[in-house]
Amino acid sequence: MTKLKPKAERDEAEGPDGGWGWVLVGALFISTSLVFGLMRSLGIFFVEFVQYFEESAQAISWISSTGLAAQQFFSPLGAALCNAYDARLVVMTGGCLAGLGLILASQATCLVHLYLTMGVISGLGWGLVFTPMVATVMANFTRRRTLALGIGFSSIGLSSFAFNPLFQLLVEKYAWRGALLILGGLSLNIVPCGALIRPQRRPKAPEKVETENKSSRASLLHRISSHLELSLLFERPYITYTLAITLLNVGYFVPYFHLVAHSRQAGFSEYQAAFVMSAAGATDILGRIVSGWFSDLAHFRLLHLLSVWTTLAGVFIMLLPVSSLSSSYSALMAISLLYGFCSGALTSLVFAVVPMIVGVERVMGALGLLQLIESGAGLLGAPLSGFLKDVTGNYVASFLVAGSFLVLGTLTMATLPRYFSCKDPPAPQRRSLDDRDKSLRPEMEQMNSLPSDVRS
């Protein structure tokens, strides 16, 4: 007969599900609005950049894609720094870099400047902010984790609703340079959000590795792997899930980058085009909260719910050009509302599923590696869409291809072990440092055994 754990031990294992965690949800709410909410609304600048720099849609698309890819590429760095040092300092540094990149972008004289400032510098800042904030909130919730993430991520839809007309107004009043300067100052509000993170007690396990031989290469590799959770790369469920999210990521952001330009090409006014994205942002908010609430009722597996929302989002992306080709603004608005709801509903589930695959103890590293691997998809999604527009002359093929990637991501998730089971498999348990690094130890021993001239 299975022995029940003491109540105090169960509570400690499950997390507080409240208290200061709700303050961190508020910090996540603000910081994500200034990361992805701002990133989604950069489509307002797309037309301005095309006209000012007289470049192709594909070339301009690399600005947003570079920022998105940099945010995801540097996420493992943010996770590793949090594991090694302090999440509070990492997030505050990221907020400073995010604001600095946009401020420098306001002085750009060529596209390369925008790639480096809005892309690399701000993207680095976003990477240091997003993953640590999400992992910190997840560590403070268990039973209401999906709802907490849904509330925190709802700011992305809210900011999308507010930022699109606001950015359009700023561009008209101060031109794109003045608008970017204001957005840079706005992004600095991430810094006080990071200051709300309380320092966490750190396990002593990494120190045990150092005591073996602080100067040895094996010790260094053990320490790096422990902070980055590199052993996850040898686990099939994690790799399969990461591949599915990577495919999803190729098409997910395409409407936010190109729907405004597509709407204007279809003959709608600037404010009508901006309002389409604002309306999608409004239903995005509703989708995140409803999805979080319904998921925590535990009527269905989170993985199955994620599959449903991902498939619906892909279908509605493919339907977006149909409505605008018929010059029906009401049809375009209706499909945009449905897409916004589904895209919002799936977002918090993407992260909430991760602890069920890797365990809560490895969430920080798992999220960082997930963001890193999918960064290539984020980098190629918008330029691929822009390339298809340049070739065909419109965005129909762009949206069809983008939506198909989301559907392909769902099919990939269906190959996960025990996917068709009605119950979640047991969550992976905490493993010791020796067990966690066992998969890497043979490779490190082999490297140390090689002659020095071969290793060099």
Question: Kindly, what is the distance between the CA atoms of the first and last residues, rounded to a whole number of angstroms?
Answer: 57 Å
What structural class do you assign from the helix and strand content? mainly alpha
The total of beta strands comes to: 0
- The proportion of residues forming helix, as a percent range, comes to over 70%
Order of helices and strands: HHHHHHHHHHHHHHHHHHHHHH
The major sheet is characterized as: none
**Count of DSSP helices?**
22
Radius of gyration equals 22 Å
What does this structure look like?
The chain is built from 22 helices and no strands. The longest helix has 43 residues, at 145-187. It has helices at 7-14, 20-40, 43-53, 57-73, 75-84, 87-105, 111-139, 145-187, 190-195, 205-212, 217-228, 236-252, 254-265, 270-295, 302-325, 329-352, 354-358, 363-392, 396-413, 433-436, 441-449, 452-455. With 456 residues, the protein is mainly alpha-helical. Helix 2 (20-40) packs antiparallel against helix 7 and helix 13 (254-265) runs antiparallel to helix 14 (270-295). The radius of gyration is 22 Å and the shape is globular. It is 78% helix and 0% strand. Residues 1-15, 203-214 and 432-456 have low confidence and may be disordered.
Task: Give the arrangement of secondary structure elements.
Blueprint: H1 7-14, H2 20-40, H3 43-53, H4 57-73, H5 75-84, H6 87-105, H7 111-139, H8 145-187, H9 190-195, H10 205-212, H11 217-228, H12 236-252, H13 254-265, H14 270-295, H15 302-325, H16 329-352, H17 354-358, H18 363-392, H19 396-413, H20 433-436, H21 441-449, H22 452-455
Helix pairs in contact: 2-7, 2-8, 3-4, 3-8, 3-13, 4-7, 4-18, 5-6, 5-7, 5-18, 6-7, 6-8, 7-18, 8-14, 8-16, 10-11, 11-21, 12-18, 12-19, 13-14, 13-15, 14-16, 15-16, 15-19, 18-19
